[in-house]
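Run folding on both entries below.
>entry_1
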Amino acid sequence: MSHIVHPYSHRLGIIKDWKSRWFGVKGEYQKRLKGDILVRELLVKRLRGMYVAGVDIERGPKQFRIIIRTSRPGMLIGKSGEGAVKLKNELLKFARKNALSGFENLKLDIEEVRSPESNAAIVAHMVAEGLEKRLPFRRVMKQTIDKTMANRDVKGVRIYLGGRLGGAEMARTEELKKGRIPLQTLRADIDYARERAHMTYGDIGIKVWIYKGEIFADKATPKK
């Protein structure tokens, strides 16, 4: 039997880059790593519902940069940039409270995701939103897959749900797939995300895989 590996970590250094990047930073590895994890957890919790696709962290000798990618930048930035300033102040306060280093020259960048339907994290948020509105889970899965496959960049999508689906007494799993999902092909651009839908009777786990084609398709061996 084959082992199941994380699609993102499986492709690190091949077609995927690290989400935390440090340049010219020496010493205090444990403290800096702990700081990155705590900041990422805080932002994921704080920005829930704003369709955040990912949080990248860059540390340099003179600057600490946080890049938030979202399909709703207007909601995050706020009127005249008030939302971004408030979020930056919250991060600085959080850093002081937890004695985190490197936050002296904090820079917060917000990037817009142009194609939200082809991003696994945003699609997972959409599924969670539909489930939390008490919509039938099969309808949510089918509508989300159809919406995702309507994007020309997407070659395949798979959605997995696990938990007390429909309020059932016993937990079970449901899965829906359309197109191709070549998980073992390293040059295949697979976007993967996990999310939870918070229901009154417990959480429902959500997993989303989106295949966007091969990165090195031009270098692939031509078929005879």
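>entry_2
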Amino acid sequence: MSDLDTPSNDSSLPLARATGRVRLRTLVLLRWLAVAGQTVAVLGVHFVAGFALPLVACLVVIGASAALNIAVSVRFPFAKRLSNREAALYLGFDLVQLFALLLLTGGLQNPFAILFLAPVAISAASLDLKTTVALGALAFLCVTVLAFYHLPLPWAASTPPDLPVLYVAGIWVALVLGLGFTAVYAWRISSEAERMSMALEATRAALAREHHLASLGGLAAAAAHELGTPLATIALVSKELEREVDRKSALAEDVMLISSQAARCREILTRLSRQPGDGHDHMAEAPLGALLDEVAAPNLGLGVDVKVILTPPTDERAGAEPLIKRQPEIIHGLHNLVENAVDFARAHVTVTASWTADHVRVRIRDDGPGIAAEILAQLGEPYVSSRRREEVGADPEEAIGMGLGFFIAKTLLERTGAKLAARNPGEGGAEVEVVWPRARIKAGRENAAGSP
């Protein structure tokens, strides 16, 4: 079945991560916090702890960071959204500034070296993959240089401690691993959140379209109400003309035609104006078989034989074929599953429905290659698809071809109380089973029709 066979390339979405995700205000405030913390640390070490360090040089490095903050705050509005390139330059400066400060104060022996993780983590959570890799490489270069070249660590004694090379190497390894782990972790969490957000947005759009279709009945009733008055006027005038015109004249037949067509229009408008609950609204509910025929209809004539089969129960308590609410979630969700099956079927798709006194069950089965075993556990996650991105393009309208079909179907159907399960039957192909509690989806007239 489509969207169910192999996982999509996870990098496809992150590589397309939108620009403008970081506001200038956020980075400016973070830098002011860094400037304040660095100033307090340097002044505290020099004047309170009494450790010797190049104070002027350290304050110049900190001042450069403060000056840049002031410059960008004056030049740009706080609400400005930074492009990936602008944010990368901003974070890159922070890495270089931290490198210069640690170069003056002991290199990797300085415990504040752990702050190299912050800019890379921010990039991984907010910027694209290329930017994160570039900043990670810059941080790696800074950490490596600091392992070999730096001024002595400020210390109270005249001779600063000489840390073993093995210990410094351990710090270097810890920082490099920390950079990698933090970046990957933040990247994965951010990407998962973004994929879920996009998938839910696509689900909302699909449901909105289905609700729009469902609302056409109400629009028709409103139109019938508005058209009733002018149509009554036409009918009245046609009746008067019918009495005035000589039945033997050439106009008599035309007048009678107008009168009959006006009567026909009134009958049509009367049917359209009937509201749900008056016992005649065919849009509010449907027998299970008719509902499945409606779901399968758009997939007929596509080269795949689609059959709908009702399996009556043997238990008398189950009653007759149930009436089902024509909820947009049910119609669109089942349609997505049938469309999935048709996409990957070789020749046949079977939609089998059965019911008991407590449950309604629908199985959608195809004779295609089946679901790849390694991804069965991922079913229901967005962007799990066998279709490559280049096959469907980057257009958001093609999102369902990118692995959202099953996710949307599952999300919509679960809103109606359904539980979904997918499997590979032993005879080949793939099968998706949807089970509802009967009380959740039965129509209000089902009891009157003789069902439980």
